[in-house]
Amino acid sequence: MATAYQDLRPGSALVPTTAFAQILRNMGSSGPVEWFAFDAATPESAFWELEPFAYPVSNPNITVDVVWGAATATSGVVRWSAALAAITPESDSQDPESKTYATATAVDDTHLGTTAKRLMRATITLTGSSLDSVAGGDEVWLKIARVADHANDTLAGDAWLKKVRFSFDY
Hints:
This protein has 170 residues and is mainly beta. The protein is 0% helix and 46% strand. The chain has one domain: Galactose-binding domain-like (Jelly Rolls, Sandwich). A hairpin with a 4-residue loop joins strand 2 and strand 3. The relative contact order is 0.35.
């Protein structure tokens, strides 16, 4: 068995016209770093379009790793959520502009302290109905959001998303 990975970066995301994360391109002392800045008070989201080309008929779980850091905080919890929308070309009659996303799956991830911008990894596992009946060859949209208005989200300031890793076994 092997695992297929797709790394999704802020610069390749689609953003809504409102409530979207700001793209930052910071020049660090060793080189440039790209982030999505998700607000601490307002839920914000970003979207990626992808094709899980090797996704098997057995429909295994999909793992979504959110690699993130805090803009200024060194403690607190961030609530991330992931949701999929899948369309099979030449089979589904759904219009991609009005496609409904499957139920979002959320996870709380705790900042481990000591340093702002320290990289953390929140792992979200999509299973069952959260997979939106995805199949190999489908056109798939992935929505990542910071659920900043949830009681469990206690991180002060922006949560900076570095990348999203989309993976599954085949």
